[in-house]
């Protein structure tokens, strides 16, 4: 069976590639990327590295020749994801791919206020309508994203948020990649959607407490309005649209739509998920460098 990973030069895809190679022969793996030179070292292992850009659908179709199952890694191009990913799905079907596994986001439903929700929902719809079998991996919020925000909080003693008393189970990017690799390489999982979460539900007060414990410095959770949180992201260097998108995840936590807690990481990867504490401890030096 030949399987493929798109966006293979990206961080999640690179990690997933490592996990896949623990499960299948290298000759059965195709990596689709806009930057083949970055992955040339893997060709020595027998991996097939092929050029493909979602903005050039024919290149994706050509790159996916002979592929049966594909991991479609969501792009980072917020605002263009729907267009790009629909093209990628069409290209996969044209190439004869029979099963598309998508790394999307949690709660792709109308009452989720997160800006990225519409893009993930539209992509899921395109996959379902494509005629291919599908698996939706709805990734929780990355634990690693708490590190740069945590460094600012450790430096100032204040952890700003707009999530209210909402709960969510932060998940490590590494665990997301391991789960994706398991779904891609193991076969099965047709026409099911999974929430990929960390091992425990946490409030923002919990996050502040963890930052304090791991850093050894006092950190207080401070709730602000959505508008204030957006302004804080702009002040940190985000473009206005990106700032609004980042702040909208706090709204989503507050709305309670990011509160599933599952065993999907263990079920798909065979390994227990890392906790937020684990991730923060791994990055303690970065927390203290703010």
Structure description:
- The protein is of the alpha/beta class.
- The chain folds into two domains: 3-140 and 171-196, NAD(P)-binding Rossmann-like Domain (Rossmann fold, 3-Layer(aba) Sandwich), CATH 3.40.50.720; 146-151 and 157-166 and 199-260 and 274-287, UDP-galactose 4-epimerase, domain 1 (Alpha-Beta Complex).
- It has 13 helices and nine strands.
- The strands form two sheets. It has a seven-stranded parallel beta sheet, sandwiched between helices. The protein has a two-stranded parallel sheet with strand order 7-9.
- Helix 2 (40-43) links the parallel strand 2 and strand 3.
- The longest helix is centred in the C-terminal third of the chain and has 16 residues, at 240-255.
- It is globular, with a radius of gyration of 19 Å.
Secondary-structure content class = alpha/beta
The percentage helix is 40-55%
What string, H for helix and E for strand, traces the elements in order? EHEHEHEHEHEHEHEHEHHHHH
Q: Which residue ranges are poorly predicted, with pLDDT under 50 across at least 5 consecutive positions?
A: none
In CATH, the architecture of the largest domain is: 3-Layer(aba) Sandwich
Largest sheet: 7 strands, parallel
How widely separated are the two ends?
47 Å
The number of helices is: 13
The coarse overall form would be globular
User: Strand percentage, roughly?
Assistant: 15-25%
Number of domains: 2
Oligomer: single chain
